[in-house]
Amino acid sequence: MAKVAKSLELSNIVALKADICAPLPILDSSVDVVFIATVLHIFNLRKMGPSIFSEVFRMLKPGGCLAIVECKKEEQSFGPPKHMRNAPDEVEAVVISCGFRKIGYIDLGYNYMIQFASAKKSTPLTL
């Protein structure tokens, strides 16, 4: 991602490799979009979700967007086992409890994307 951003001369995109369960080295209210893709199945969402999404909320600007892509909670020939996957309503419940509101849902076939806003001014991402 960092190489693509650099090749396109996009100076406002930062790819950061970090521990999602720890405070991140990012200023409060300084990020427009946080994109989390196919990693939440690794964690106990009820236990770790509040700390993860509270940290995301802290970093996002007013009107900022959180986009989460996860595998649907169904048997598939690839990806994590069904028992490790999170259904959309499970993800929504935890994220909304951290101060977000849902602004969009997109069915991506084997996956889904849910979009959340940290303030009232957000609009859904378009694909």
UniProtKB/TrEMBL annotation:
One Pfam family of this chain: Methyltransf_31
Residues in Methyltransferase domain copies: 3-94
Alphabetized InterPro entries for the sequence: Methyltranfer_dom, SAM-dependent_MTases_sf
SUPFAM superfamilies: S-adenosyl-L-methionine-dependent methyltransferases
Segment forming the signal sequence: none
Top-rank taxon: Bacteria
Protein known as: Methyltransferase domain-containing protein
Native source organism of the sequence: Desulfosarcina ovata subsp. sediminis
Listed CDD domains: AdoMet_MTases
